[in-house]
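Question (not urgent): is this output format expected?
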Amino acid sequence: MSAVTGSFLPRDLCGRVVQEIERDPVWRWGEVNRGGRSQVDPGFRRAQWCLVPPSCDPLIAGRLVAVTRSLRSVFGPVHSVEGPNLLRYRAGDFFRPHPDENPRRRVRPRTATIIAFLNDTGFRGGSLRLHRTGGRPPLTIAPQAGRYVAFPASTVHEVTAIDEGNRYALVAWLH
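Got this back:
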């Protein structure tokens, strides 16, 4: 498993994005894909997502294009980008270990996952864990506002439970 990290947004812009998504969001419960069917399963995934607000779209889209270009050397050619979605994990929220299955995998498989952290204060818990093969312990990544991590979409990963506060992130997938 190869994970890549880098800068996604300056910390102050991350704060503005969080303010915008909390201003008038339409939050949906995150679904789990099982056998090509999506369903809400709060015992496996308890987190909410929303679309990028129009006020933030040019900024987020521009950064995602730049990051995607920089990842070609690691993950190969990029044919399309799925997302981005903004995620909110509140106290008690989590996401159990899973790979990023693509419900449309027969059309174009997901090759990489990009997660950009939008905050690193105001909450406890919520580490990203990337599970490694060969009996090695998981790689634990603490959120750092403005940083992204990219990894193969087949990598089993999880978000540990939030003890208090809200954790915000952006997720997108490369095809």
